[in-house]
Design a protein that fits this description.
single chain; about 100 residues
Amino acid sequence: MNRNKEYLNSYLLQSDTIRILNEMILKNPSQKNQYLKRIKICENKRYAIENSIEKMKDPRLRVILYEKYVCGRTLEEISLILNYSKRHIERLHIAALKLFEI
């Protein structure tokens, strides 16, 4: 479960890395091709995470993982979106992490 959480958390890290690399292209245009290759790697990692989330059979669990790890929302915010108690979202989140397959 912990490994799954780390993997999912890497989505936002990839997004941050892409943003930084795009800034580096502006500062160092001569290195543009190297930065673009690294951006492509980050994008591929993000797509892999999105595809893994899409494979979740339970749509509620899919939404929870997407909102938490792709959108960066808190479990409390997700509880408001789905109209469930925060505690119920916490339980569903734990279940989603257990069922998630990389």
